[in-house]
Amino acid sequence: MLLGQNALKNKKNYYYSRLNDNQKYIYETLVQGISSYTEKIKVPPRPINELTMIYESVLLDNPLIFYTRTFKVSSDLNSKKRLLYPAYNISKKKVREYEKGIHEYLRVFDTAKALSNIEKVYFIHDYCLKHFTYDHSFNENSHSILGLILNKKAVCEGIARFSKLVFDYLGVKSLVVVGTAKNPDVDSQYEPHAWNILKINKETYHLDITFDMTISSKKIRYDYFNLCDEDIKKDHCITGNVPLCTSKGIDYFTVNSLIAGSYKKLSNIISDKVNQGEKTIMVKLVNVEDIDNMVDRVMKIAKTHCNKGLSTTTVSYNPSQCVFEISYK
Fold first, then answer.
1. Which fold has domain 3-88?
2. pLDDT in tens, 159-177
3. What is the torsional sign of CA 259, 261, 265, 271?
4. Prediction pTM value
5. HSE (side-chain half, CA atoms, 13 Å) at 91
């Protein structure tokens, strides 16, 4: 039995829960067939777009099914069934080898099992930023969990699927969100994107590890850590039906008192951090006046806090989330 068949043991997967009874039957049939590496799977005669939606639901719910992304379909006139042919991109023998390796790999996270759920989220987030990078070469495994496990790099989809795999392993409820987003480092149009939604203390939050990974290579960032809908939608667009994330208060900046609602508050935060000997300060501005001159004002305030041992001030800016990184040398 392949590990992917564990999917049938958990009927609480989010995308599975969104289906009607007939669609759930097809979902379960697909999981059984794909996990057994079946070449031809018989399913009820449903429209292609519906079968595509169910197939994608299987893949979104089950990151351990990493060896197929698409399928072909034909009709069986005798049985009045649809014949669905998964496009397997890895041999069955290799899949079994990889699954054993994945099981061993997940033990890296055993040390986090005793942590609270929010601590587990920090652990996984920081682990990804310390050990992995974004795959600009678009390797063949970049869209699955294999990208990070084998090559230590993946695109957003692979990162989100891997994160869900580890969240599942540690008992944190999560799902992969599919939508579009605007890269905070590049003035570009919205592009296809994937990230996660987590459930912590009965509330749901957005977590985009990919964006935090790509903002800076020098410092772990938390610009997209446990955000509500209002904040994530500043540069993300959700295209599917996902849970509402309306709660606030456990994002990194709120928890660490790094929210500045005025330039005076910003100055106070910088002053406190400089006095504590910190040379890199992260702060998020909200509801401040004079938005057009925001960056200039932040730089001016930052420079006023240079002490005798710090001669250079640099400021980087994530405009969508209004997060500033102020560095002193």
1. Ribosomal Protein S8; Chain: A, domain 1 (3.30.1370)
2. 999 999 999 999 999 999 9
3. positive
4. 0.93
5. 3
